[in-house]
Amino acid sequence: KTPVLEIKNFHVDYGLGDEAVQAVRDVTLTLHRGEVLGLAGESGSGKSTLAYGVTRLLPPPGVISGGAVVYHPPSGDPYDVMALTDAELRKFRWAETSIVFQGAMNSLNPVHKVSTQMLDVIKAHEPDLSAPARTARAQEMLKLVGISADRMDAYPHQLSGGMRQRVMIGMALVLEPQVVIMDEPTTALDVVMQRQILAQLVELRERLGFSVLFITHDLSLLVEFSDRIAIMYGGRIVEEARSADLYRDSLHPYSEGLLRSFPALRGERRELSGIPGSPPDLRGMPTGCSFHPRCPQAFDRCSVDIPVLEVARNAPDRSVACWLPGRTA
Ligand code: ATP
Ligand code: SF4
Ligand code: MG
Predict the structure, then answer these.
(1) Domain count of the chain?
(2) Under 8 Å CB-to-CB from 327, ≥6 apart: which residues?
(3) How remote is the CA of residue 23 from the centroid of ligand 1, in Å?
(4) ipTM of predicted complex
(5) Residue 183 lies inside a defined structural domain of this protein
(6) What is the DSSP track for 136-190?
(7) Is residue 302 part of a domain?
(8) Residues in domain ABC transporter (predicted)?
(9) How many angstroms separate the alpha carbon of residue 241 from the centre of ligand 3?
(10) Atom in ligand 1 nearest the alpha carbon of residue 49
(11) Which of 28, 71, 99, 194 is at a distance of 20 to 30 A from 298, taking alpha carbons?
(12) 319 C-beta neighbours (distance < 10 Å), count
């Protein structure tokens, strides 16, 4: 397994000084070449903040307050995305790593045809490509994401939500980036559509060979489609494992609660109701393990010391942040 994007000790705050709240805390996470990595966690756990932070698209008052994001290009030396200049960053986005935002389907420009918008992306990054070659590339990509030739000259409002989302995926892939980050909205797309989109992404991944960081509330989708899953709580990664391992035997009580919140792999969707209580407030984070007020297995140490993400005992390819005996080496 070779890394393509290594997030290291990453921190994001909202606000400055005394006003600052920490939304992403010491996140270390590696995306490997060709894999689909799922990121799950309740609303407010910091998933989007992490995604926008690593691509440096974080809107104010978001501030990256520490860490590195090392990108490994297909050829040449790895580099830290945090150290790129604005000009380098513009090249990096779309061409090396692209992101499909939560609600991206509404970010298409309503006054331009979808084909025009895709051509603009190609033009901005590959100005030397001839106009016919650009058109061919755009058509090919739209076809790949299931937009037929007769819809190419449609305006965004003439397409369904699912089709617009597919157009956004096509734009994200058209420059053949190594990494695609997808931040799926909970409500805007129903779960059937999310499922189709993820299935399609996985299929395209086989053909084009990119890696995916897929963010969703729907853990059942991730169990089914992703290679590995990272679980986020209160701004931290609390567990990370191969999907099958996590599903069979989660090590963190929060993951266990999340898994219990959905009935079956293909069952009907339910809210994350398996865990009583609500996610922590960033302004008053619990001491120690931030999950301790809700954790059915909490004991003395949990409210005092913060557990760090460590390699699990007897399982070198998974990690967990929990003080329960026997969890880590
Ligand atoms: P969802 O599943 O609802 O999309 P999320 O896991 O993506 O949630 P984030 O949107 O990253 O969560 O938010 C993480 C935390 O940061 C939340 O507590 C949120 O209230 C806070 N936050 C997000 N944006 C801002 C902002 N602009 N100013 C202050 N706090 C913010
Ligand atoms: Fe529960 Fe303690 Fe583990 Fe936190 S560290 S998940 S409170 S047992
Ligand atoms: Mg989000």
Answers:
(1) 1
(2) 251, 252, 312, 313, 320
(3) 7
(4) 0.98
(5) yes
(6) HHHHHHHHHTT--GGGTT--GGGS-HHHHHHHHHHHHHTT--SEEEEE--SSSS-
(7) no
(8) 5-259
(9) 21
(10) 11
(11) 28
(12) 23
Report the SS3 class of residue 267.
Answer: coil
Range of the domain at 62: 3-96+177-280
CATH number of the domain enclosing 12 = 3.40.50.300
- Side chain identity at 83, as an amino acid letter? A
Q: Which residues contact 249 (CB under 8 A, 6 or more apart)?
A: none
- C-beta 292 within 6 A of ligand 2: yes
Position 166 in a domain:
no
Question: Quick check: helix, strand or coil at residue 39?
Answer: strand
Q: What angle do CA 48, 50, 52 make, to 5 degrees?
A: 65
Using an 8 Å Cβ cutoff, are 253 and 276 in contact? no
Q: 306 alpha carbon to ligand 2 midpoint, in Å?
A: 9
- Can you read off the two tokens belonging to residue 210? 């990119």
pTM for the model stands at 0.93
- Which of 297, 305, 306, 308 has most ligand 2 atoms within 8 Å of CB, for mutation? 297
pLDDT tens profile 274-328: 688 888 999 999 999 999 999 999 999 999 999 999 999 989 999 999 999 999 9
**Distance in angstroms (rounded) separating the CA atoms of residues 221 and 33:** 21
- Location of structure tokens 């909970």: 186
- The response to whether residue 287 sits with its C-beta less than 6 Å from ligand 2 reads no
Q: Which residue has the tokens 């619990």?
A: 286
**For 2-45, how does the pLDDT look when each residue is reduced to its tens digit (9 = 90+)?**
999 999 999 999 998 888 999 999 999 999 999 999 999 988 99
What is the C-alpha to C-alpha distance for residues 141 and 175, in angstroms, rounded to an integer?
Answer: 10
Which range among 191-195, 217-221, 309-313 has the greatest average pLDDT? 309-313
